[in-house]
Design brief:
Helix content: 10-25%
Radius of gyration: 33 Å
Number of strands: 39
Distance between the termini: 96 Å
Number of helices: 10
Largest sheet: 12 strands, parallel
């Protein structure tokens, strides 16, 4: 929450982003688990503005739906055929109340690292200085491609010139325009009516508002931001990857400074929406994505991907892929486990090696240690599922559920053909196919007599190594018995 609340924030997101070479609008490409536009909206929401407007054009319906998914109260404005940031801001302003007063902040939908704190600092500086316009600027060694900030002999900002319209002397200026502004609302509305399109690009530049304000004798201020990353935009997939890596570096560092051990930050990817408790440890080659929440003293990884997983205190997850699942206090998962949506592992429970679970609840202290599939099942507390067991939940038409009671000891290589219920304290033998309910305390077995066909290998596999071994063994037995 901030003490400086702008009257409005206008986010410009109308561009096609042709350099992305994508059917998807540029602002909908994502880094850190959130779209570029999503990052811009979240940063703006942190200011608690009275109004939030997003200007759209390319793939309007897709972008509009995305805006409303993130921020239902946002106003969507359509940019018309007049090109340029000035016209985009004007279209956004036209969707807001005509008697708007106070500070209007203009930012962009493709500047994902810009933080609420930086915007708040600019709004504060703007309002405390009494400026009509404040532009966020940075100093860079190679300003090629950027608009240059023009100052007079007293150091006051008098205008901004775009790269293509700049002369040689102006191109030597290293202070660049980020394109992010704080305006007095009345000044912005009046100045935009005066801005023309008589420039090399034939566009209505937002930068020209600076010159209009200066020409009217209004104060124009610059708010210099030292962190250049926050003003960087994304125009192609190379920049997308670059910004994604920097955002991830910052996210990982934030968690480490909050008390999380990350063994190898270079191979650890954490989305911005993830929360991790103190004294948890993240091992190499781990991705923690979406709305994943991790408690305290948890160990994750190595070689693990988690998406929207809730992990409670003291749990461990090793070499696992999981999504939309819950792992409760002190439970252990992996290595080489696959948790599909709806998996819920109870406190101190275990999902072990090469186990796949889906839409199943495994009770506190229960174990599925090895080589099993558990789908559409409820397993009671402290029960143990033997190796190589399969919960047969699908008959080709309908998926059905299996219920295992508390304190069951079930054998290896069991098949549970749903719907079926195994009562509390029941046992089963190895190789059992459970087709009928098992009463509490009963032993379930699939009993069939074992048949041994003597001499079958020598007769049907003559000449093989097995036949030679069998013949040798028979001769030894005959010798021992003679």
């Amino acid at each position: 929450m901030t003490d400086h609340h702008p009257t409005a924030v206008i986010i410009l997101a109308a561009g096609e982003g042709t350099r992305m070479k994508s059917a998807r609008p540029k602002v909908l490409h994502a880094i850190g688990g959130r779209s570029l536009l999503g990052h811009a909206i979240v940063a703006a929401q942190g200011l608690s503005p009275t109004h939030l407007a997003v200007v759209v054009r390319h793939e309007r319906e897709l972008v509009t739906q995305h805006v409303h998914d993130i921020c239902p109260e946002a106003v969507v404005a359509d940019q018309d055929d007049v090109k340029g940031t000035g016209r985009a801001a004007e279209c956004g302003l036209d969707r807001l109340p005509g008697d708007l007063t106070g500070t209007v902040l203009v930012t962009y939908g493709d500047v994902p690292l810009l933080e609420t704190a930086s915007l708040e600092a600019m709004v504060r500086a703007h309002e405390e200085s009494g400026a009509a316009v404040t532009v966020m600027t940075s100093h860079i060694s190679d300003p090629s491609g950027y608009g240059r900030v023009l100052r007079d002999s007293a150091g006051q900002v008098v205008g901004i010139v775009e790269q293509k319209d700049a002369d040689e002397a102006q191109r030597a200026i290293t202070e660049i325009n980020s394109g992010i502004y704080a305006f007095d609302a009345a000044l912005l509305r009046d100045a935009l009516r005066q801005v023309q399109t008589d420039n090399a690009q034939g566009e209505k530049y937002l930068t020209d508002v600076v010159a209009v304000a200066h020409g009217q004798g209004k104060r124009v201020a610059a708010h210099v931001l030292a962190d250049l990353w926050q003003t960087e935009g994304v125009n192609d997939r190379v920049q997308l990857a670059k910004m994604g890596a920097e955002l991830n570096r910052r996210t990982v560092e934030r968690h480490m400074r909050a008390g999380v051990t990350v063994i190898d930050p270079a191979t650890t990817w954490i989305d911005t929406s993830v929360s991790i408790g103190q004294d948890s440890t993240i091992l190499p080659n781990t991705q923690i994505l979406g709305a994943t929440t991790i408690g305290a003293d948890v160990t994750i990884g190595p070689d693990t991907t988690l998406i929207d997983v809730d992990i409670r205190d003291g749990a461990s997850v090793i070499r696992t892929h999981g999504s939309l699942s819950v792992i409760r206090e002190g439970a252990s998962v992996g290595p080489f486990a696959y948790l599909r949506p709806g998996s819920d592992l109870g406190a101190k429970g275990k999902i072990g090696t090469f186990v796949e679970t889906k839409n199943s609840t495994i009770g506190a202290g229960a174990k599925v240690p090895h080589l099993s599939y558990v789908g559409d099942a409820t397993i009671g507390e402290r029960s143990n599922i033997g190796a190589a067991s399969v919960f047969v939940n699908y008959d080709g038409v309908t998926k059905s559920r299996t219920t295992i009671g508390n304190d069951c000891r079930l054998g290896s290589d069991n098949m549970y053909v749903a719907p079926v219920t195994v009562g509390d304290g029941a046992y089963s033998g190895a190789g059992t196919t459970v087709r009928k309910d098992v009463p509490a305390g009963a032993l379930a077995m699939s009993v069939a007599p074992q048949r041994n066909l003597l001499g079958w290998v020598e007769e049907h596999r003559a000449g093989t190594a097995a036949a030679h071994a069998a013949q040798a063994a028979r001769l030894r037995e005959q010798g021992e018995n003679s």
